[in-house]
Every structure is written in structure tokens, then in C-alpha cells.
Amino acid sequence: MCLGIPGEVVEILTDRQDLAKVDVCGVRRAINIGLLADEDVRPGDWVLIHVGFALSKIDEEEAQAALDFLEGLGKAYQDEMDALRDSRID
Amino acid sequence: MCLGIPGEVVEILTDRQDLAKVDVCGVRRAINIGLLADEDVRPGDWVLIHVGFALSKIDEEEAQAALDFLEGLGKAYQDEMDALRDSRID
Amino acid sequence: MRFVDEYRDAGQARALAAEIAALCEPGREYKFMEVCGGHTHTIYKHGIEDYLPESITLVHGPGCPVCVIPMGRVDDAIHIARQPGVLMTSFGDMMRVPGSGGNFFDANAEGTNIRMVYSPLDALKIAREQPDLQVVFMAIGFETTAPSTAMTVLRAAREGIDNFAVFCNHVTILPAIKAILDSPDLRLDGFLGPGHVSTVIGCAPYEFISGHYGKPLVVAGFEPLDVLQSIYLLMRQLKDGRSEVENQYTRVVPWQGNPTALRVIGEVMELRPYFEWRGLGFISHSALRLRAAYADFDAELRYELPDVRVADPKACQCGEVLKGVLKPWECKVFGTACTPETPIGTCMVSPEGACAAYYNFGRFTRQRVNAT
Amino acid sequence: MRFVDEYRDAGQARALAAEIAALCEPGREYKFMEVCGGHTHTIYKHGIEDYLPESITLVHGPGCPVCVIPMGRVDDAIHIARQPGVLMTSFGDMMRVPGSGGNFFDANAEGTNIRMVYSPLDALKIAREQPDLQVVFMAIGFETTAPSTAMTVLRAAREGIDNFAVFCNHVTILPAIKAILDSPDLRLDGFLGPGHVSTVIGCAPYEFISGHYGKPLVVAGFEPLDVLQSIYLLMRQLKDGRSEVENQYTRVVPWQGNPTALRVIGEVMELRPYFEWRGLGFISHSALRLRAAYADFDAELRYELPDVRVADPKACQCGEVLKGVLKPWECKVFGTACTPETPIGTCMVSPEGACAAYYNFGRFTRQRVNAT
Amino acid sequence: MTTSDRERQVLNRIERTRRRRPKVREERITLAHGAGGKATQTLVEAVFLEAFRNPVLEQLDDSAVLEIGPSRLALTTDSFVVTPLFFPGGDIGHLAINGTVNDLAVSGARPLYLTAGFIIEEGFPVADLIRIATSMREAADAADVHVVTGDTKVVQRGKGDGCYVTTAGVGVIEHDRRLGPSEVRPGDAVIVSGPIGDHGITIMLARGDLGIESDLVSDTASLHELAAALLDAAPGVRMMRDATRGGVATVLNEVARAAEVAVVVEEDAIPVRPEVRGAAELLGIDPLYVACEGRFVAVVDGAESDRAVEALRRHPLGARAAVIGRVGEAPAGLVLLKTAFGGTRICDVLVGDPLPRIC
Amino acid sequence: MTTSDRERQVLNRIERTRRRRPKVREERITLAHGAGGKATQTLVEAVFLEAFRNPVLEQLDDSAVLEIGPSRLALTTDSFVVTPLFFPGGDIGHLAINGTVNDLAVSGARPLYLTAGFIIEEGFPVADLIRIATSMREAADAADVHVVTGDTKVVQRGKGDGCYVTTAGVGVIEHDRRLGPSEVRPGDAVIVSGPIGDHGITIMLARGDLGIESDLVSDTASLHELAAALLDAAPGVRMMRDATRGGVATVLNEVARAAEVAVVVEEDAIPVRPEVRGAAELLGIDPLYVACEGRFVAVVDGAESDRAVEALRRHPLGARAAVIGRVGEAPAGLVLLKTAFGGTRICDVLVGDPLPRIC
Ligand code: SF4
Ligand code: SF4
Ligand SMILES: [Mg+2]
Ligand SMILES: [Mg+2]
Ligand SMILES: [Mg+2]
Ligand SMILES: [Mg+2]
Ligand SMILES: [Mg+2]
Ligand SMILES: [Mg+2]
Ligand SMILES: [Mg+2]
Ligand SMILES: [Mg+2]
Ligand SMILES: [Mg+2]
Ligand SMILES: [Mg+2]
């Protein structure tokens, strides 16, 4: 019910400024962007889609930061595992 | 369209005096006898049925008279034919 | 089946045939018109012509109520059926009668709801049971059928059923016979009178035919012996030099008709000033409509009808066939472009239409029977 | 799939799992409630529990909007759908929720016309295109979904579409969390905050939880790494002795939420004095209804509702499951009398319901995985 | 040229027209296309035969006869859309089994295995479905066949009419006789296995809207034993066909056309129950065109007709079997009816059928 | 008793419940009964299997396998009620042929002859009917089968939905291997013949009411060559089944239950087109449950899995064939999914299906 899917805005419909064509993995749907009226949505932006409405704009910098954190963690863990394995081999 | 079928009245419906149950070769239907209001239709009478209405009561005497005529004619013809054949055999 | 099977005896038929043959004057041709499509049907269905000498020809008349409905009326009916909420009802015979844009089945295929009923009372019953529907009954038929429609309207009025209406197309037989008698291109020796119409109107109304026009008329029943006997009676009149109205069908037709039925028709309906008959054109005072007192039940008033006159297809010669001027097979499209499957004219639709009866039952038989 | 697949990496999950394990104090049990059914679904669908140490238990919360709809509201919806000309619409999740006399599919089998739509705007579109229908949209959902309903009502009003109405069942998340926090029978160590609700209401409203109740809350995304990372953040807070509202889901959730959405909700809807939640009973100020200004679009006013309170089936322990007091499998009818095929309670219907998620995805896995 | 020469010319032109390749003139399907008469025939030939054309299908027989490995098999299918679903003497379940069994049986096959596909309307009572399945089982047991595979679909309310059933069947042909309308030749005798029209009239009355009451019951039955008995008794069986939609008249016309013979039927000899006749007269229809679901028409060597009828009469379902006519040479392609009255008329294929949805 | 003992007890009780004889609890048929999930299964077992019970039907396989004389034949049927009738990549005509050909092919038979029954709604455009028949011919030619007999019914407007088609098919089994889900054993490999879910998603989007655009086309295709190639390449083929209504997950569950094995699938290994995934995410459905009409699931001896996949990939329809999992011993009767994330979950039969009328 609270399902939210990220999609990329590919076009703002010229005849209906509150509608954007959004692409999800190659399928497209007109999504109402009226709830992002203050946000200046443009093609190339990513939005979170919920029951035909865009609920929020996805913040790519925040996303990158989170991924960086996770990757750092993952890398550290991997290094540790490798070290462990190496130490065992020794 | 002007199809008329003879049927035998088997019952006057008690709750609807303008309806009679009529039998045609063993199948039965309620038939409106309102057009025969002056004729005192009773079980045992034969009527001519057209689109759910009885159009006339069948006159059994007249029917018999016609049949008698036809049979007389047929018999005379048959006798003649027989005579003809007999005369040929001779 | 009583009152039916007795009148189908082959032995008696042979006897009657012999009598008829005996009445033929050598070298003379006889032409009798059976007015009623019911007779046309009987003649072909039972093979009555097999009993007749070559010199007697049966000419098919205008008495098939389905055949005489003009295209425009079919279009009007479909127009009514297209109105929202309308259930159109009629007798099965009407379903295949072509309008200018197809028949009732075609209309149903495109979304109308047109259903066959056995009786106008059944249409009224649907209206009573389904008050959300507007039930229209397309009434067709001669005086035989008009009383049933009238009775149904009376009942609807009595019960106050306001979702019921009649699209009235009842026609009267006498003006049509008169039109034929007045047409210059047809020579007839007498008429087989319409048996079931006569149960209602009786026999006296035909006296202008035997009197003014000097043509004998025998009111005839619908079993094959009835028809043969009626021909026999016609031949007798000719032999005797008489021109009378006779009643062969006495078991069913009282001379005075059915006064109740006539009263009911008169109460509910009145003559139209004129009405178009398919192939015959406009004939004065030849059809019935509802009286003003029953205007509430009159579909012609309830629905705005296009009421456009549609010309018969060029190839159609139904008029000539209905007037008896042409034999069905003489129509240029008979059996090729016009078949029961793809009828161009109405006479090919109703089982009582001359073209349909001849196509379905009659063709080939006379010359081929002995081949088998 | 961008912003999705990146958060499903098994390697990073192992790293996070190691960090989480490292934060566990020996001998201590941790209980975190995921408020939102979306999280419950993610947890079972991706097998997140496989990464958690035995000492951490995830407790499923009340945040599945389908699960909290009481039987009486389903009955009311079916009652509306039974009115002539009504097309009832709702999200697919609602179709199988049992009312006292069956679910929407059963109602349809008996003659109603209840259809799934993807968006409330689609319901409005049907109303626009089929003016003969009365289209009712059964609105369900938390603050995530309420703005969409509100926007749809605004559009209907702007366009003057008068054959459209909303049967409003929107609920608000905070009173439910508060009810749980106030319930005596549950000890929790923290909350995974509902990510998509928070896109609308933001993070600040949760501060009473970390403040007044002293329980840490992390607003969490819905991919499995989001959930693991949020658990990690909760564990850190516990380790650090902090109790704060944190936002793990910063790529989607702004701290302040979506002011436009909040404004739209406020314009169209107002809090009800109280509302019944399935299993939880009546909760004050926990649901929304249309404001008087939009009364024309309010199905509760347009149709006379039976509005009968229906007691939950005796065997049903959804209330305990929704409060996190019972694990799904601890309900006496779980998996035998109550299955997704024959649900007794709502938690077995929605894919986000704890019982459904556990039955469909979770059962058997923990102990059997290694067998294969 | 005399009048009768002209008439003969016209009639010949008509016969040529009748034999022309059929063409569907309508833009939309009407009920007539399903009624089993000319419109159905035209649709089948113009659309389906045209699309699928192959030598087996071209026979348009009750069953397709196939050589698979060393076996000769018969394969057939029918969809059942009767309304009402339950009627005096049976229900759609009986029809669905018996209809397919009969198509196999009249092809000379021993019916073995059936498939069943159900298209059910949302809201249909499960109890009625069970009743239909139970009837199918009963009928299958009676016919000694097995339903070995099936399929179930559900369509939205308003997209169906309760339940439609499609069965297909496989049988094995254990003799090497060739059967089929084209095997018929002049001198053969035409037989019906029992009184005609019971099923069609029963269905029509069961709908209730005609207000006609009767004690009629459908004749639905499986004819495999009767067909086998006939094959045993008369080596000169030319063809059998169950007289379903379109009735006996339609079967006879198929024979006349396929074999290029005249079929001459004696009206008097055709067994018709009085009630069938009564209902038919009331409604203005002809029993010759009314469907049976448990009667077949057979054509046998004229010399074997007595033996054939005796064999049929020994079976309860054939107790009123009768020779109803003979095959002649001319007019080729036509069915003639000698009326009880002593006249002769044509008996053509019906254009429309007043009885839709009878099976 | 510890918590986890208690949990295990509960779970065992559930498994016993799951295996109980199915009972239809509803009084009326709902759309779920036709969606191919649990409700369909229950209806089929409780009503049809109960009524018709015989050893062949009990297999509930794609086709019934019959011994007729010296021949081993496969017989199958399916009714097609898809809406819309015409969709990207095909129409009901393609489905009706390919569906039945595939049921024969995955039974290990060489498809030979088909029957076709049409239930057409009054008013249906004749041009559309011709289009459907033409598609059927195309598909039949491609599958090298012949439509040898058929039937046509017309139902009133409002009693149908344009056109329903029921096909039945006969094929011959020219080898003596036994195929079927109960032949599966631990150690076997699970294969799908190509990307899943294209058909179901295409149909759902083709209805237009979701407003989703895509370039997806149905995968409808006839799998007879692919099935034959697999049989040739891998003597250890245990079973094949086309993944129609209910999708791959439903087939896998049938295998797990019939063979009393655990089927363990790697989520990562399942070929799914991005567009299918996108549409499925938007709609909240799982491609594993979405129908294909041109893909099968096969289980082969684990040692032959590479050879099997190579053989499939040599055919254009199998270009993206892949091993998606393995068969284990326990938990018997269940399908487990190893998620890309590294977790494990159950993958049960779906109760309702969000996609009615897809075939
Ligand atoms: S053949 Fe057709 S067009 Fe010609 S007269 Fe007869 S019905 Fe009319
Ligand atoms: S098993 Fe069913 S009744 Fe029990 S809590 Fe879960 S949903 Fe409710
Ligand atoms: Mg047959
Ligand atoms: Mg058949
Ligand atoms: Mg048949
Ligand atoms: Mg199937
Ligand atoms: Mg219906
Ligand atoms: Mg299959
Ligand atoms: Mg099948
Ligand atoms: Mg199949
Ligand atoms: Mg058939
Ligand atoms: Mg429809």
C-alpha cells in the first residue's frame, strides 16, 4: 500500500503542467506531479511514485552519500575478510 | 403470420375468466378468450388460436358436414377407380 | 391433430382433383389469386399444385403482412429500438425483414434489443415485469391480428402500464384487393378469400368483389383439402356462370365474422388516411393507427420517428409479385441475388411470402418429381 | 533498477550484519518494531532476518492500512456498491479483505461492480468518461496516500464531476504508534520509522517518541540494505545511550516532509474525533474525513451507511499481531483456519500484513535454509 | 422459349448460385450464424474452412478421421452454450458428453476419451457447477468414456451466461469401412433412429417465456451402442449423422449435396411425437428443422434397410427407428418431401433458426 | 518447549493443513477461480477431479497421456478468454493454437491435430473473426499442426466478450520416457526457456486502463521445437511445463509438491526483461507469478543442465534459457527463493491473481 517506486522524469506534458511522463525500467506512465509544485521538476529528475502521484524528488547527492557509506562499510568488511583468509592461509 | 391453430379448451382459469388453458396435441398454453366473450367458451370446445388469442370457436357440425362432403366425393371417386380397374381386369 | 389431419387425405385430394379437372373447359386458362400468404404457404408446403391441371394457375396475392411492410417502417422500428432503455418486440417473421440498413438481427448485432414474442400479451408481460424497460411492440398483420393488439392496448390501459407502447403497422385487406382489381395488367378469374381475416370481418365485405367486379370469391381454410375444395367451388361458380362470395371454411368462419373483435379494433384503432405498402405504393384508408384516446400507448407519438420513405431496391420486383403480375421466378434477382439468406425483397423473407414459399418449397418440384 | 538494486547488495549486507552483531551486548535481547507494513514485506521478501543475530527480534507494527480496516467499513463499502448504478473502486489490496458477509470478490460474484484502480485519478477518469455511473473511490492509506485522494477531490471539484465520491478511510500513523507505546504488554527498544509516510509528514513529528517515550526511531527506506542500515543506526543509538529521531532514508525523505502535500490534506480533510482500527479498537483523532466544503464528494454523506460495528471473529488475534504482542505464528488460527486463501483476519490479506508476509515468504526459512 | 423452359433456366441458374463459394455478407455476427442453418454453414466455410483448409477439415464431418501410426482415430469437438442450463431430461453436462460421444459414434468410432473446457461466469453457483460435473460423469459412465483432461476459465459477470462447456473427444475406428455423406448412392434407404425434435422443443419451452406447458423431455443420450449395432447389422451403412442444430432436414441436405443425389423423404414416415408437433404448430416451426441430441440419421444400402431398422429397434434408444425415405438420382443436390397429402415439395436448409442456444 | 519448538510445531501443522483435500468454501464462482492460483487449483480438484476421477485425469498434467492401440498419444484442451483479443505480439488466435501445441509439446509429444470451438458474441465484427482465424492458421503452420475439426456457437450480446476459443489437441509420443513432475528428484536442475512474464504484463498493459506504455510484446510462441531439442539433448529430462496462468512460481510449486522435494531458486538467475520488472514494480506484482505463453520450465538431471541449456540456446526461442535453481530434499513440498540480497524466502502458490483473463 505504501509502495513507492523510483522513476525518471522523461517529459513534462505540455498540455497538462501537473503531469509528467515517468520512466520505470523502460515502461512509461503519466504521473501527477502536483504534490511537487514547489520543486521545479524537470526531465532527468528522479521521483518517488505512489498511486500515480510523485511524492518526493529523489535527492541524488544524499543517495550517493548513503551508498558511499555502505560501500565503505562493505569494503572494510571485505578487506577484513580477506585479511582473515590470508592470515588463515599463512 | 395469419397462422391459426385449432386447440381444445381444457380449463377456464378461475382467477382470470378471460384466459383458458388450451391443449394442442398434448401441449398446453393459457389463451386469451376475450374475443369470444359472447360465445360461452367451455372445456371441450375447440377454438382457433392466433398469437395467443382465440379468434373463433370451431363449429364441429360444420366441420363434420364438410368432411362428409369430402368423404362422399372420395368414396365416389374410389368406387369409380375400383370399377375402372375391375373393368380393366375383365 | 384434430381439424387438421382430416383435411390432408390424399385419396380425397385425388377425388377433388378429378372433379376440378372435369370442370375445366378445354382450351381455357384459369387464374385464381390466393389473397392470403397463409394459402401461398399451404400451396407450396403441401404441393397442392401437383393436383391441379396445367390450365389452372394460382396467383399469389398481397396478403402477407410481413411482405407489405415498407423499408421505411423497418428503419423506424430500428430507430425506436435504438432509443435508450427500449426493448423492441415483434413476431419472429419480422426479424429478417430488410430495412435500408439491415434487418432486426443486424440491428441487434449493433446493439439494439429486439426480441421475438409469441403474442402481444407477452410483450405487455415483459413491460409489467421489467418496469425499467420501455417495451415497444411492433404490431403487424391484417384484421386477423389487429384485435389481439387492440386487446393488449386495452389491458395496458386498464392496468396503467406506462412503459408499454405499440408501433402500429396493421393493414386492412380490402383496399389491397381493390387496388389489384383496379390494376390494368392483371386478369383473374376469381379469389381464394383469406380464411383467418374472415373470422374477424366475416364474408359479407367481399361482396363488392363478386358484385361490382364480377369475380367469384371463396373464403378458404388453410389445410390442403380446404384449398382444393375452394378451387373446386370457384370452378363450379365459373362453370355455372355465377359470381358469388362462398364460404368453404364454415367450421371456423361465421358469415358475420367476430363482432367482439371488430368492436375492439374500432374502440382502439382508426383508419389512417393513407399508408405505404411495400411494392404497391400508397393506398388510401388501408391501415390502422391508435385512436387519440390511446395516444399514450402510441410509439409513433412517443418517439420522434425519422419517417423517411425509402425507395425499394432497384432490382426488387416485389410489387409485381404481390400484385400477381409476376411469378416469383420471373423476378430478375429471384434465387440468385435474392434468396432467403440474402433477401432483397420482403416476399423472400416471410415463410408466407410468395418468393420464399416458392424458393423453399416449390421450385423444381413440378418438373422433377417424376424423375426420382 | 536505479535507487533500488544498489540497496540489495549481499556483500554490503554481510558487512552491515557484522557491524550490527558487533553492537550486540552479550545476553541482551533487542526488540525493534517496524511500524510500516512495507517494511514487514521487505523483511520477509528479501529474507532480512537471515542477516540478524538471534538476539534481535523484529516486531511487526500497525502500519498496514489494509490490515487496520475494520469489518464494518468493508460492509459499508459493499453496501455502497450495491446501490444502483454504483461502480466502487479501490486499490487491489482491498479486494480480498473480509467483511462480515464476504469480500469484494464475493460481492462482485453476487452482482456488485467493484473494480481495482491503480490511482484515485483513474477512478475519477472513469467517472468523467462514464457519466451514467456513480463512481465511488474507497480511499485507504496513511499520510502517504491521503494527499493523492485530496488532490483527486480537488480536481473533481474543479471539473465539477458530480458522479464521483470518496469513501474516506484514511488513517494517521502517530496515534497508532502512541497507542502501542501506551499499551502495557509490550517492551520495545526502538522503531523503524515509516519511510513513505515521512515523505509527507517529515521526521520532526516523531520526536515525542524519542523524547517523551525515550525510544530511538530511524526513518527507514524500503530496500533491504535500508532496513539493515536502519537497524544498525538503532543499535548505535542504544550503544551510545542516545534516543533520537534519525533519517536513514535521506534520498527520499526531507526532514520537513512535503509541505504541499500537507497543505492539500489540510484543505480537503479534517481529523475525525475517533475511528475504529481493526484489532486496536477506537482511537481518538486517528483518521481523516472530508471537510464540509467537500461534502458533495463524501460517500458517507451521499449514501446512507449501515455503519454497524462488526465484532472481529472470535478466533482473530490481529489486534495482538498489529500491536506486536504476538508473532503471527502465535495466533491460534494462523496457517490452519487462517490462510491467505481463507483469511480470517486482515493481516493475512494485504501483502504487507504481518501474517501474510510471514506465511507467504517467511515461514520455514530460518530453520530449513541450511537443509537444502 | 416456353414459360416452363424459362422457369427451368432460372432454376438451373439458382442451383449454380447455390453451389457458389459462400461469402459472409454481414459485417457483424448475428445469432443466425450460430443457429446451424445456412448462415452457420456460410460462416464456417467462408471463414474457418478458408483459413484452416486441409483435406481432413474439408470433409466437415461430425469427426475428423485421422491416421496416427497404425491407428485410425476420430477426433471431434463441440461447444455447448444452451440456455437454460438445466432442462427436463438433462442439462448442459449431459449434452456436452453425449454430443461429443455421438459425433464420434456416428463417425463409426468407439468413443474413448474426452476433454472438457469450462468458461464460467463470475457469480455462478458452485452447487450448479457440481451438478453439471456430476451429470457429465453420469453421461460419461453411461457412454463408457473418460474425461481425461480439462481447463477452467472464469469471465466477468456479464461476459458469459452461467457456464459454457466445450468438449473434445477421441475415439478409435476399429473397422475399415468408409462412412460419410459422399458414400451415399441412389437406391439407398434413409433412416432416423427415433422421434425427432424432442430436444429443441423441450429447450424452447423450458425457457418459460412462451408459456407453453408440456411433458416433453430432451432426447439427449449417447448413441454409441446404437451406432455400433447399426454397423454390425448392416455392412452397407453409408453414413450416420446426429441430427443436432438444423435438425434432420439439414443432415439430409448435407447428404444430397455431398453425394450429388436426390433425397426423397415420406412425411408420413417421420416419427414425431404429438407434443412436438403441437408445439411446433403453435409456434409455426417445422420439426424437421428442430434439433435432437439423441437421434441420428443413417443412410444404408436399400437392400439392408429392414435389417438395419430391426437392429436399431432392438435397442431402447432405437425403439421407434424408421425408414423415412430413399435416395434417388435427380434432382441432384436436393431434398424432396412427399407430403402426407400426396404432394411434393423441396426441403431446403433453413436460413435462420427460431431456436438459438439449444446446445 | 522453546519458542522455536512451538514455532516448528505450528509450521508442521500448517503443512498438514496445506495437504488436506481441497474444499471450495465459496458459494459462488469468483474471478479468482479462473486466475490459475490456489482457488483454481481448489476448484479443479474439488469439483472436476472429484466428479471425473480416473487415473489419467489425476495426473493433472498439461496433457493426458493415453495408450490407444499400439500408440502413445497426448490429448489436451484449453479455453481462451483473453481480453483484449488483440494485443502486442499476437491475438487470441495465436494463443489458442500455441497454448494447446505447448501443452502437447511439454508432455513430450509431437503435436499433430487440433480442434477449435468458437463461442462468438452477437455483434462481433466478422473482420475480427477472420483476423483471429488467420492468426490461428499462421500459428498452426508455424507449429506444423492442422486444425481438423471445429464448432461455432453464437451467444446473445452481453453473454460473451467478443470471442472465446477452445482448442483441443492430439499429439503422438514417439519415445518411451516418462515425464512429469513426480519424476523430479533431488540434485536435478531447474531451467526456464527464456525471460518470464512478458505475456501477462503485455496483456495487462494492453487493456489501457493502467495508462502504462511499453514496447513489450507477448511471448506467445509454439514450443514444440524447443521441447524436442531439449528431449534430444538431455536424456535426463524429468518434466517440462509451460508457465502459463500462475507463472513460473506455480509450476515450481507443482513440482515441489508432486515430487515431495524442495525447489530452490536463485532470484538472480531468473531472466526477466527490465520492462517487465518495471511494470511489475509499479503495480506491486511479482514476475514469478505472471503468465508466459511461450516459455516453459524444465527439470533435468543436474549433470545434464549445461548441455540442456546449450541445446535450448541454439533455438531462437531459447536464446535466454537459464538454469534458475536446483532441487533439494527438504523442506519437501516447498519452493524457496534465494534472494539477490542473500536471504531466503518461501515462494508459495498465489491465492488470487491480479491478472484475470490473460489467456
Ligand atoms: S425475388 Fe426478391 S426482390 Fe424479387 S420479387 Fe421476390 S422478394 Fe422481391
Ligand atoms: S493468523 Fe489471521 S486471525 Fe490470526 S492474527 Fe493473523 S490475520 Fe489475524
Ligand atoms: Mg454431429
Ligand atoms: Mg463436433
Ligand atoms: Mg455435434
Ligand atoms: Mg489449461
Ligand atoms: Mg450474464
Ligand atoms: Mg500447460
Ligand atoms: Mg491444456
Ligand atoms: Mg495450457
Ligand atoms: Mg458442432
Ligand atoms: Mg459483452
CATH architecture term of chain A? Roll
Q: What are the segments of chain A in which pLDDT stays under 50 over at least 5 consecutive residues?
A: none
- Binned strand content of chain E: 15-25%
User: In the CATH hierarchy, what is the architecture of one domain in chain E at level 2?
Assistant: Alpha-Beta Complex
Number of helices of chain A: 1
Would you give the CATH topology of one domain in chain E?
Answer: Phosphoribosyl-aminoimidazole Synthetase, Chain A, domain 2
What does the model show?
The complex is a heterohexamer, with 2 copies of chain A (90 residues), 2 copies of chain C (372 residues) and 2 copies of chain E (359 residues). Chain A is built from 1 helix and 5 strands. With 90 residues, chain A is of the alpha+beta class. Chain A has a single domain, classed as SH3 type barrels (Roll), CATH 2.30.30.140. With 372 residues, chain C is of the alpha/beta class. Chain C has helices at 10-23, 37-46, 71-81, 104-109, 120-129, 146-159, 173-182, 195-201, 207-210, 224-240, 259-268, 299-302, 318-322, 354-362, 365-368; strands spanning 30-36, 56-63, 86-90, 114-116, 134-141, 164-170, 190-194, 217-220, 245-247, 269-271, 274-277, 281-284, 288-290. Mean pLDDT of chain C is 92; it is low at 367-372. In chain E, helix 4 runs parallel beside helix 5 (126-143), helix 4 runs parallel beside helix 7 and helix 7 runs antiparallel to helix 10. Chain E is globular. At the E-F interface, helix 2, strand 1, strand 2, strand 5 and helix 5 of E face helix 2, strand 1, strand 2, strand 5 and helix 5 of F. Strand 3 of chain A pairs antiparallel with strand 9 of chain F. The structure holds iron/sulfur cluster (SF4) (2 copies) and magnesium ion (10 copies). One magnesium ion binds at residues 78, 99, 103, 244 of chain F. Chains C, D: One of its GO terms (biological process) is protein maturation. Chains C, D: Keywords: Iron, Metal-binding.
